[in-house]
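Researcher: We're teaching a course module on how sequence relates to structure. For the next exercise, students receive a sequence and then see the predicted structure as tokens, so they can try to spot secondary structure elements on their own. Here is the exercise chain.
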Amino acid sequence: MRYPTISLTKGNWTFLPRRHASGAVGHARKKCEQSVELLINADVFRNEFGGKYILSRAKLSNAADLGFDFVGKWDSVEGVYTMYVYEMK
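Model: And here is the predicted structure for the students to work with:
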């Protein structure tokens, strides 16, 4: 059974839950050490959704190509998540 991709948008925030190999949608509990390619239409994100920031638990390999500047990385030794923040140029 395939589960639909869920995205929740409120103001400048868009939440895209992680899809597990089983097809279930939920939260991951391991740190993501590799970079990933973000597959979005940046013009729609900016102009139709009014988006300005992307919060990601993985480093984005194509952020500059999509028009995003890297703002910072937040991490803690005891935390399970690393947060990468990107701002629309």
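Model: If you want an answer key for the exercise: Helices lie at 42-47, 63-66. Residues 42-47 form the longest helix (6 residues).
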